[in-house]
Amino acid sequence: MVGETGRSMLIHLPRGFAPGQSVPLLLLLHGSTSNGAAMLEHSGLTATADRHGFIVAAPDGALRVGTGFAWNVPGVPTVAGTMPSAGDANDVAYLVTAIDWLATQRCIDRARVYATGASGGGRMSSWLGCVAADRFAAIAPVVGLRAGNPLHDNPREPDPTTCKPSQSMPIIAFAGDKDRVNPIGGGGAPYWQYTMHAAERRWATLNRCVAAPTTRWVASGIYEESYRNCRDGAAVVARIMVGGGHDWVVDNEAMWTFLEQYRR
Predict the structure, then answer these.
(1) How are beta strands 68-70 and 63-65 bridged, if at all?
(2) N or C: at which end does the chain have fewer Cβ atoms within 10 angstroms?
(3) pTM metric for this prediction
(4) Measured between alpha carbons, how far is residue 100 from residues 9, 56, 103 in Å?
């Protein structure tokens, strides 16, 4: 149970963790219709956490969808096509409260808090970067990078009024070029109209990146698009798996190597 929230989350403590330690925290957010337990198992991040000594917290979203949950991103319909209402639980407030609660338990270092998640969890981690940038050192959306809600009059572009981070936000995103649910070329569901490249460009603008974007192969079948020379060193990086679909298309070691270099 998380403080007085009335909600609970799974927390994986890394091998060798001792009470009173302050270690990094990675929030792991599940996809729509799933849950924290399934995400924790599917991601393989517990082994990564054991190797590098960070806590993984795997909560459930506020909204019941099918047999699982979805995240409350205001103004964006869920995969069920329903819009969150004003009466629905505030997931941002819940996750921020969870961070504070873990800090009061002397478990985590507030300066090293990160968020990742797949699909709907990727969209939610993007939203955290938009509205709670002061609480996260970096984010790593998976098959779900967004930079605010789609613009009402032109949904092929992000609405700049819906993503105004208070600070720069380092980002590493992962996707597959054969994803048919959240295609990197945009389209599909109402929440996924603009392209992944548009999201990258918007974050690069928000982070005041001044260098032209570069593209390079980082492994067989994986290329990386990156914007660097950004304010506070907050790079925007996207790794694309050729042939990859709507799945956890992540090199966990590469993700953690990127995240751990940042402090809030």
Answers:
(1) antiparallel
(2) N
(3) 0.97
(4) 14, 15, 5
